[in-house]
Amino acid sequence: MHIETAAIEGIVAITPPRFGDHRGYFSEVFKDAWFRENVADVTFVQDNESLSAQAGTVRGLHFQIPPFAQGKLVRCLAGRIMDVVVDIRLGSPNFGKWISQELSPDTGKQLWIPPGFAHGFATIEPNSVISYKVTAPYSPQHDRGIAWNDPAIGIRWPFDESDMVSSDKDKTLPRLADLPSHFSYSAQQPQD
């Protein structure tokens, strides 16, 4: 598997190799031992999947707080998305900064997002299907988020804000400046 480290420590893009012929291709998209040795020594406990019917749908920016903080391994099974990660670790040199990766089934690229980061995405194509593994189960009491359109973060989404579709819940999320500190930065690799 090919690994790319991102500009923000802890975020890793992974592209599994594909072996193809006239029928199509085969790819091992996840191997527990390889992931633990090369990316993060974590246990995934749940797989989630979402479909966004419209291009311009934005979901996020979401995270869960301890003790149900989640690491996520995200991939796009259909369509195409702009996947976004924001560093929310207090004291991090990258606090409030964001990175993005385009994910699609054409490349098979996946994005590892450890705890301490808010995550969201915008669909570039209609009928985009996202699959992601998480290191903690969903817990409504620990579910949090920040506004996807917070000007202090300044994410450059692929559509004008007026053309974006989001949930009522995501429209009411606080800005980063109003968020209590849930994660702190240490100079070591973030752990689950």
Automatic annotation (TrEMBL):
Catalytic activity line of the entry: dTDP-4-dehydro-6-deoxy-alpha-D-glucose = dTDP-4-dehydro-beta-L-rhamnose
InterPro entries to which the protein is assigned, alphabetical: RmlC-like, RmlC-like_jellyroll, RmlC_Cupin_sf
Annotated site location: Participates in a stacking interaction with the thymidine ring of dTDP-4-oxo-6-deoxyglucose: Y138
Pathway: Carbohydrate biosynthesis; dTDP-L-rhamnose biosynthesis
Keywords noted in UniProt: Isomerase
GO cellular component terms, A-Z: cytosol
GO BP annotation list: dTDP-rhamnose biosynthetic process; polysaccharide biosynthetic process
E.C. number: 5.1.3.13
Gene Ontology molecular-function annotations: dTDP-4-dehydrorhamnose 3,5-epimerase activity
UniProt enzyme class: isomerase
Superkingdom of origin organism: Bacteria
Active site (UniProt): H62 (proton acceptor), Y132 (proton donor)
Family named by the database record: Belongs to the dTDP-4-dehydrorhamnose 3,5-epimerase family.
Biological role stated in the UniProt entry: Catalyzes the epimerization of the C3' and C5'positions of dTDP-6-deoxy-D-xylo-4-hexulose, forming dTDP-6-deoxy-L-lyxo-4-hexulose.
Complex and partners: Homodimer.
UniProt-recorded name of the protein: dTDP-4-dehydrorhamnose 3,5-epimerase
